[in-house]
Write a structure and sequence with these properties.
- The chain is about 55% helix and about 20% strand.
- With about 500 residues, the protein is α+β, with helices and mostly antiparallel strands.
- Strands 8, 9, 10, 11, 14 and 15 form a six-stranded antiparallel sheet that branches.
- A hairpin with an 8-residue loop joins β4 and β5 (about 120-125).
- The longest helix is centred in the C-terminal third of the chain and has 34 residues, at about 470-500.
- The two termini are about 25 Å apart.
- The model has no long low-confidence stretch (mean pLDDT about 85).
């Protein structure tokens, strides 16, 4: 018996020492959630229509290239709606060749045939759904890369719902919300577009040049250098062709962003610059022209974005270009900023509530169960150490709802002790000896305790899987607390009873 007790206390000592090692000091080891540390909470919506349009535009470019390779000259090719391509001016003599090109290269599009020199392609519903789903997933990963490179510690970035278009972003300890908001929301869609005409003082002046109606293949964009330019709607090169970007300086030693294209981007860049020497090439970021230099010679894979940038702006632009442009624009549908002072106040109140609950429960247990109550208070204290040690070990965030979960755990832990102690009392009233009553009380109460706690753990797992920040914090502390309470209420409490009574030759009465 003595050897059995020694092994039990060795296990208890190991678990407690292990927990203290990971927990101390709590201020450095226990990670605080957004509501305790302060920071930003954002709910973002991905405008997936943008991704569908972008895919359509890329397919227009591909179709133009394929037709050029086959020597098929058409009147014009333009987008219609968000997922349709219209082609006009198809020569009668090349209809068969045109049909062959489309049917062999656009299998994910609905297409019938050429009618009176015109044809329409429509993206299939399944492909549209795939693009929308992919755009949300890519947005999630792009935002995560941007936040990681910016250096924000321990962010929470996750999708809201299983197939929704919203992303939840929680950033603890942010001290410059405006800059971070711009970093996350900025699509950073880099496009290189040939300039058709301009500059014009106003958008109306640009439209007047075209009789009040702009052709489908052109668009009017504002320029940071002043006025408006008419450019090709379809970009010659996009951010998808980008290999890397970094902050640099221009010829006047002012902050700028240098970029390098990948192999495919370099091929397209070489083609467009070699065929358009003397024309302007607009460098467009999120539908605003940063600069529009003249093409003086063939360019292969390098370029520079100049503008009135500060050092921070150039750094952030290079960062978001380097981590990839968002596949669609982002809308902020919810934003909350929590100050550090509010978080500190929440910590004080949460700790005060937890300590008060712990003390009141301990006093009640000692007054009602005498020495057995002291046993329960020891188990309860060890339970708290195990909870904080486990949170520190797995770097789980402690949130305000998490503190509520700890307070709830205190009650549930004591509930297990109450079930055991009342069962022991009942066995003693039925005539069993104190030692036998302790054995039976623990063994018979264990099934009830396990069933009750297991159902709560299952519910907490669902809360964790389908909840967001604060709800997940509550679920984590509740799961950890319940497992710890089963260990302390059943294993630790019984070991203490065995140490107190099982070594004695005759036990007539126990303090319970």
């Amino acid at each position: 018996m003595k050897r059995k007790i020694e092994w039990k206390f060795a296990i208890i000592f190991f678990v407690i020492a292990f927990s203290i090692y990971f927990m101390v000091p709590p201020s450095k080891k226990v990670k605080l959630g957004l509501d305790l540390k302060g920071g930003m909470h954002l709910v973002l919506q991905v405008v997936t229509d943008d991704a569908v349009k972008m895919e359509r535009d890329q397919e227009i470019l591909r179709l133009k290239s394929l037709l050029e390779d086959e020597g098929i000259k058409v009147g014009r090719i333009y987008g219609k709606g968000i997922n349709n391509i219209s082609i006009e001016g198809i020569p009668d003599t090349r209809e068969r060749d045109f049909n062959a090109v489309v049917r062999s290269n656009f299998k994910d599009w609905n297409y019938s045939s050429v009618v009176e020199g015109k044809a329409d392609l429509a993206m299939r519903a399944k492909e549209i759904s795939n693009i929308r789903e992919t755009s949300v997933e890519e947005s999630l990963e792009t935002i995560r890369r941007r936040v990681d490179e910016f250096g924000i510690a321990e962010p929470v970035i996750q999708r809201q719902g299983l197939h929704g278009d919203k992303i939840v972003v929680e950033l603890p300890g942010v001290d410059n919300p405006r800059r971070v908001r711009s970093l996350i929301k900025n699509t950073a869609l880099l496009e290189l577009k040939l300039v058709k005409d301009g500059p014009f003082p106003t958008r109306a002046d640009a439209l007047k040049k075209y009789g009040g109606k702009l052709p489908e293949n052109l668009q009017i964009l504002p320029s940071k250098e002043g006025g408006y330019l008419v450019v090709d709607k379809i970009a010659s090169v996009t951010g998808r062709d980008l290999k890397t970007a970094r902050r640099c300086v221009d010829t006047y030693n002012l902050p700028a962003v240098c970029f390098q294209l990948n192999a495919e981007g370099a091929r397209k860049f070489e083609k467009v610059t070699s065929q358009n020497i003397g024309r302007q090439l607009a460098i467009v970021l999120d539908n605003v022209i940063e600069s529009a230099p003249n093409i003086k010679a063939t360019i292969f894979d390098n370029g520079i974005i100049e503008g009135n940038f500060t050092a921070d702006q150039a750094h952030d632009l290079a960062l978001i270009l380097r981590t990839g442009s968002l596949p669609a624009s982002i809308k902020i549908v919810e934003e909350r900023t929590i100050g550090p002072s509010l978080g500190a106040d929440s910590i004080r109140k949460g700790l005060k509530a937890s300590i008060l609950a712990l003390l009141l429960v301990m006093i009640f247990m000692i007054l009602y169960y005498n020495l057995a109550g002291i046993n329960a208070t020891i188990a309860l204290s060890l339970n708290m150490i195990i909870i904080f040690g486990t949170l520190a070990l797995f770097r789980a965030a402690l949130t305000l709802p998490g503190i509520a979960g700890i307070v709830l755990t205190i009650g549930m832990s004591v509930d297990a002790n109450v079930l055991i102690f009342e069962r022991i009392r009942e066995e003693i009233r039925n005539g069993k000896s104190p030692i036998a009553a302790i054995d039976v009380g623990f063994s018979r109460a264990f099934t009830t305790i396990l069933d009750a706690n297991l159902t709560t753990i299952i519910a907490s797992i669902f809360l964790y899987n389908f909840g967001t920040g604060p709800i997940r914090g509550f679920a984590v502390t509740l799961i950890v607390g319940i497992i710890a309470s089963i260990f302390t209420a059943v294993f630790v409490s019984k070991a203490i009873f065995e140490l107190m009574y099982f070594g004695k030759k005759k036990v007539e009465k126990i303090s319970i």
